[in-house]
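Re: that chain you flagged

S.,

Sorry for the slow reply, it's been a week of failed gels. I finally had a moment to sit down with the sequence you sent. For the record, here it is as I used it:
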Amino acid sequence: MKKLLVILSFVFAFNLFAQDTLIFKRDYIPWPDTTVVFLPHQQKPSIKLPMLILLHGWSGTYRQWNKEINLQDYADHYGWIIVTPDGFYDSWYVNSPRKKNCQFETFFWKDLIPKLFHDYKIDSSAIFISGLSMGGHGAMTLFLKHPDFFLSAGSTSGILDLTYFPNRWSMKNALGSIEKYPDAWKNNSAIYLLKNIAGTNKQIIFDCGTEGFAYNVNKKFFDECRRLKIKATFISQPGRHAHSHWRKSIKYHFFFFNQLLKDRNKK
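Prediction finished late last night. Pasting the structure tokens below so you have them in one place:
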């Protein structure tokens, strides 16, 4: 019996070892940010690993993605570092023009990214970001504002044009009213940032269920990608703005990002 307990304790500790929890407390974020980092069990200390950042949806937390899918399994299967920061319920992953304690982008670039590079061996040429709904917006806008930092980005059921929904999901808490802060709404909408990767080799992936309320926005986003000749993969399939869709669609994002790495390594 004692031998069994020792074995179980070892297995439990081994599983925990593959996950780290980081907590940041700053004046420019509304409350301490909790970020979970999933590390592959099989890794060589000398090898730098790809990193995928996953952003949760409106009203969610850093726990959301690991409830949708088993992130440890994905980290082990692909051999990637997977990072899930907290988006403060409704920050929309932007720097608020009206709230000094709601500066997500400042936190992301000033605190989170430097900490990750300090603590882990990350391949700086293989960084991806994706998310669902509000997180899809956040992932795509962070990527489009800093395309040189990321290899690629994804979005599932993303709100890729905030101006399309000026009175929804407490966006005004972060951005103020669209009438008073029109530039903030436009400058933080992914569709208006696509020009930043026009004429480059950057590739993106995004999807939306055809019954989802964000479908028209995603379709419009794809039309803009085609107009700008951007290499975009748009997956349009039956589905709603729902957990069942996100659990299915995120698998394509992993596959897409992994294929980019394989294609790059062939060159």
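What I noticed first: Residues 243-266 form the longest helix (24 residues).

Talk soon,
D.
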